[in-house]
Design a protein that fits this description.
about 450 residues, mainly alpha, 4-stranded mixed β-sheet
């Protein structure tokens, strides 16, 4: 008849140890997948540990539901509030303890390298409060539906619920214990928004747990405490709605720069990418020398403000999302793509692709058309200095997608085109406007 007595003390201890281990491992794996590769900034750590809740939260809810099912079978009724809350609070201690261990491991890793910015305790508190809500929901499901399949359903249900809320539009997505999106290094995180989310999550968790305790113990004190918790949760929601979002306004960034052979400046959390970015853009700067797109300084900018960028002459803005393999080539390719208008005709696009490949330092594409193959062969026969002189002469034609066969050797009877006068041609925006026509953005 032991199975009807619910969970024993030894079994509970063993399950707690297993759960802590699983949550730690799962939390580290999940947080590692959220970390932006190569970025050394404390905000990255905070976003990663909060992001790990999408996996660790459902596991915590399933564990709480499992204990609640076993506890319900062994308990005829709780006589005091203390007796009723003892088990769920113990589960909370286990789960939050595993979260703290995950944070500690990531923090120790961060301490070994110099991190930009500062650690936001309110962000970590919000993560712990989010786990508390997962536990309370799992406990209530396990107590209310005491079946063997309930723990698995609790994990699936909480995952689906918070994923649906997080992917919603408007302010409702801030109610879920998920990291703010989109996250941008140049925007930073809002300490106040995290504090408001913590108040909401702790308030709703306490209200649900104390409401359950009032139902099972029939104690008016528990019901009164639950009502106070509802007020706290409402205060948190009201403050969240009044906040613009969980991202603070654009911060004044003190760039980390490499001064030679050209100046390359990035967010201090991405200073590890300076050497590779400098190598990638030095060649492009040499090839663009003497053209309206010539530059001597490269600055990393936020994608969220890409349309409002105002770069001085000789300064180009670039976007670097991470320092994963190939990041410099991706940034260079994106910049070169913005040098000219998109070509709507395949023939013109083929000629443009030849010049763009040379600017990126890549092998020249031959293309499926014979005229592109001939143009590529002709352009390959030029020396590097001749190519640069060619681009100075015909940069405006390249930028406005007006290259033709005559620009690449031409036909024997075709006159060589006169160079279009060099006029300043603005870079194309990172994302084309809805109308499809480019507009000056920088």
């Amino acid at each position: 008849m032991r199975e009807h007595r619910g969970v024993s003390r030894e079994e509970l201890k063993h399950s707690a140890v297993v759960t802590v281990t699983v949550l730690m491992v799962l939390g580290l794996v999940a947080a590692w997948s959220v970390l932006i590769p190569g970025v050394m900034v404390w905000d990255n750590i905070v976003v990663a540990v909060i992001g790990s809740l999408r996996l660790t939260g459902p596991v915590a809810a399933a564990f709480a539901a499992w204990v609640a099912v076993r506890k319900r079978r062994a308990t005829r009724g709780e006589r005091t509030i203390r007796q009723a809350l003892k088990a769920p609070l113990a589960i909370l201690a286990v789960v939050v303890g595993s979260f703290g261990a995950t944070v500690l491991v990531l923090t120790l890793r961060a301490v070994l390298s110099e991190q930009a910015g500062r650690l936001l305790p309110s962000g970590l508190a919000m993560g712990a409060a989010g786990l508390a809500l997962y536990v309370v929901l799992g406990w209530m499901l396990g107590w209310g539906v005491p079946y063997a399949i309930t723990p698995m359903l609790a994990g699936m249900a909480t995952y689906a619920l918070f994923t649906w809320i997080a992917e919603g539009s408007g302010w409702a997505d801030r109610l879920a214990p998920t990291p703010p999106e989109p996250y941008d290094l140049f925007q930073g995180l809002s300490d106040g928004a995290f504090l408001d989310q913590t108040i909401w999550l702790l308030g709703i968790s306490a209200a649900l747990l104390l409401g359950w305790a009032a139902a099972v113990t029939r104690q008016p004190l528990a019901l009164a405490a639950a009502m106070l918790a509802v007020l706290a949760a409402g205060t948190g929601v009201a403050r969240l709605v009044s906040e613009p979002d969980a991202l603070s306004s654009a911060q004044k960034i003190v760039y980390s720069c490499q001064e030679w052979p050209i100046t390359v400046c990035v967010h201090p959390g991405m200073r590890g990418g300076l050497t590779e970015l400098g190598s990638a853009f030095t060649g492009i700067a040499a090839r663009l020398s003497g053209t309206p797109a010539a530059f001597q300084r490269v600055e990393q900018r936020s994608r969220l403000t890409a349309g409002a960028e105002d770069a001085a002459r000789g300064v180009i803005p670039i976007h670097v999302d991470d320092l994963d393999t190939g990041y410099a080539d991706r940034a260079a390719a994106e910049f070169v793509e913005r040098l000219s208008r998109p070509c709507t005709e395949p023939v013109s696009a083929g000629y443009r692709a030849i010049v763009a490949a040379w600017l990126r330092g890549e092998p020249l594409p031959a293309g499926p058309l014979l005229e592109h193959q001939n143009a590529s062969a002709w352009f390959s026969g030029l020396s590097e200095e001749q190519r640069r002189e060619w681009l100075r002469m015909f940069y405006a034609d390249f930028a406005n997608c007006r290259l033709s066969v005559n620009h690449f050797g031409g036909l024997a009877y075709a006159p060589r085109p006169s160079p279009t006068p060099l006029m300043p041609v603005p870079l194309m925006p990172a994302s084309p406007p809805p109308s499809g026509m480019p507009s000056p953005a920088m």
